[in-house]
Amino acid sequence: MNKLFPVTLVLLMSIGNIATPAIAKPDRPNCNSTLQSVKKSLTGVRSFQQDKLDNRGQPRGRTLSFDITLKIDAEFPSDTSQMAIATRVIRNCSKIALVTFAYYQSDGVNTYGIKNGQIIEFTCIDAGSDKKTKWGETYCM
Questions:
Q1: What is the 8-class DSSP label of residue 24?
Q2: 8 A C-beta contact, residue 48 and residue 35
Q3: What local confidence, expressed as pLDDT, does residue 29 receive?
Q4: What pTM does this model have?
Q5: What's the burial of 48, exposed, middle or buried (CB within 10 Å: 0-12/13-18/19+)?
Q6: Residue 16: alpha-carbon gap to chain centroid
């Protein structure tokens, strides 16, 4: 029994050392602080909303969308800014699969989401189409 103790101790110490770097990431902001930062950085926002996604083919465990609705007279962030914001939100919020930017009472909508580990702008499919959208596609006008 005493002969196994050092081997067991070394094995447990090895497992602990392997797991430690994956557990602790103190420099990565948490989801709430990321969302608060996004809210403070945008002007002309009418609402922020998290919605539950039905099964649309999104990555497993990512069950929420984050919708940003701007006032009709607000300046719409550039595509580059939208992609940067969506990337921050999706990378720091493990449950969020997509971020949508929209003008209030308008057809102007841009959607970004995670697909195959990459953040992409969703492809626009004509709203009049009979085609059912797949993950990575969205209806637009």
A1: -
A2: yes
A3: 59
A4: 0.73
A5: middle
A6: 30
Those residues with Cβ within 8 angstroms of residue 17's Cβ, 6 or more apart along the chain or in another chain: none
* Residue 78 burial (CB count, 10 A): 9
Q: Are 44 and 68 in contact (CB under 8 A)?
A: no
SS (H, E, C) 74-115: CCCCCHHHHHHHHHHHHHHCCCEEEEEEEECCCCCEEEEEEE
> Token match 């209806």: residue?
139
Cβ contact 66:89 at 8 Å: yes
The whole-angstrom separation of Cα 68 and Cα 34 is: 14
Q: Which long-range contacts (CB under 8 A, 24 or more apart) does 29-38 make?
A: 29/92, 30/92, 31/92, 31/93, 31/94, 31/95, 31/96, 34/88, 34/89, 34/92, 34/93, 35/66, 35/89, 35/93, 37/88, 38/68, 38/85, 38/88, 38/89
pLDDT in tens, 7-50: 333 333 333 333 323 333 334 559 999 999 998 888 888 888 88
- Average pLDDT of the segment spanning 131-141: 85
CB atoms within 10 A of CB 84: 14
